[in-house]
Amino acid sequence: MTNNSIKISPQDILSQEFKTKIKGYDKEEVKNFLLSISESIELENSEKENSKKELEQLKININKLEKRENVLRDTLISAQKFSKEIKNNAEREVQLIIKEAEMRAEDIVNQARERQRSLNGEIKNLKFKRKEIENDLLNMLNSLKDLIESYRKEDEEFDKIEFLG
């Protein structure tokens, strides 16, 4: 088989004409034409065989790809299930955290209310003590005022006695 072989179609074969000589067709020309047909058929048979091999290889590759696709599909399904489990676990954990936080918040609010009551009681006591101190101071000031007034009266009486004398 030569690399310069001519591709001959069935129409080429039907339309081929040979020169006639005294004894018939030119033997060399017929021999060359048949050789071209032989090479062309050989080439097509070789290409057909290569196409069959390529087709078989493609079928093998398709089978491998289908197996990979099945593995990937199974993996994806497993991943989706795992993802759903993780999501459900996370939601449960969030609910627990929220409940714990609500309970802590309730404790803090209760402690704050108790502290507020305690502080309100202390404020009332301090106000009462301040009133007592204010009253004591007013009483003391009134007593001092009375004392000062009594000193002034005594001074006035003393001054009257001094002027008389």
Q: What do these coordinates show?
A:
With 165 residues, the chain is an all-alpha fold. It has one domain. 87% of the residues lie in helices and 2% in strands. The chain contains two helices and two strands, in the order H-E-E-H. A two-stranded antiparallel ribbon has the order 1-2. The longest helix has 138 residues, at 27-164. It is rod-shaped and about 200 Å long. The N and C termini lie far apart (172 Å). The mean pLDDT is 87.
Strand order of the largest sheet: 1-2
What is the strand tally?
Answer: 2
Count of all domains: 1
Question: On the 0-100 scale, what is the average pLDDT?
Answer: 87
Strand-pairing-aware structural class = mainly alpha
The major sheet is characterized as: 2 strands, antiparallel
Radius of gyration of CA atoms, rounded to a whole number: 62 Å
- DSSP helical segment count: 2
| Global outline | rod-shaped
Helix content: over 70%
Task: Output the helix-strand order.
Answer: HEEH
Distance between the termini: 172 Å
Could you outline the blueprint of secondary structure elements for this entry?
Elements (H helix, E strand, L loop, with lengths): L9 H6 L4 E2 L2 E2 L1 H138 L1
Antiparallel strand pairs: 1-2
At a glance:
With 165 residues, this protein is mostly helical.
Jot down its keywords.
165 residues; mainly alpha; two-stranded antiparallel ribbon; 87% helix; rod-shaped
